[in-house]
Write a structure and sequence with these properties.
A hairpin with a 5-residue loop joins strand 4 and strand 5. Helix content is 0%, strand content 48%. Strands 1, 2, 3, 4, 5, 6, 7, 8, 9 and 10 form a ten-stranded antiparallel beta sheet that branches. With 169 residues, it is mainly β.
Length: 169
């Protein structure tokens, strides 16, 4: 049983972007992307007290549309390495997402992700996927470890836009 109370405001992990996403080619500390990242998790007053982190996401397309893959990377504190934390697939469900929960802007043809799979990464088997399938709003949840920065790489295939939201629990 989970008694997770959201303690912090939601943060955008991926803003509304088109399908062109550049993969991380080199895994050095300085190879970290400059956009669609959350940096300084443990120094951010709104995130430092989170015991766990979660991702919920939505996209604009049709029900049952999937992103080909997601890769969640973490960059360890103090110039540590970039490590692939989780990888898998996310699929939109039938639950409408009419409003961007971060900005309050209207979303046209938006649907919440209802299915999240995990197929690899350092945290595979050490995460939870909550409310996956059944047209609910799925959440990918893991313990807040020693990673200070997060980056979510995606391949959207034919999906029009995709947004991911980081939640502290």
């Amino acid at each position: 049983m989970y008694s997770n109370t959201i303690k912090i405001p939601w943060r955008a992990l991926r803003t509304d972007v088109a399908a062109d996403d550049t993969p991380i080619a080199a895994f050095g500390y300085t190879s970290w992307p400059t956009s669609n990242t959350i940096n300084g998790l443990h120094n951010d007053p709104t995130l430092k007290d989170a015991n766990s982190l979660g991702i919920i996401a939505y996209g604009t397309d049709a029900e049952d549309e999937a992103i080909t893959y997601y890769k969640l990377y973490g960059r360890a504190k103090q110039n540590g390495p970039i490590i692939l934390l989780l990888t898998g697939v996310m699929t939109l469900g039938a639950q409408a997402c009419p409003v961007n929960p971060i900005t309050g802007a209207a979303v046209t043809a938006g649907f919440w992700v209802d299915t999240i799979t995990v197929t690899g990464g350092l945290l595979e088997g050490r995460q939870d996927v909550l409310d996956s399938t059944g047209d609910m709003i799925a959440m990918l949840k893991w313990d807040n470890l020693f990673f200070d920065d997060l980056y979510l790489e995606i391949d959207m295939n034919t999906m029009a836009t995709f947004s991911a939201i980081l939640i502290g629990l």
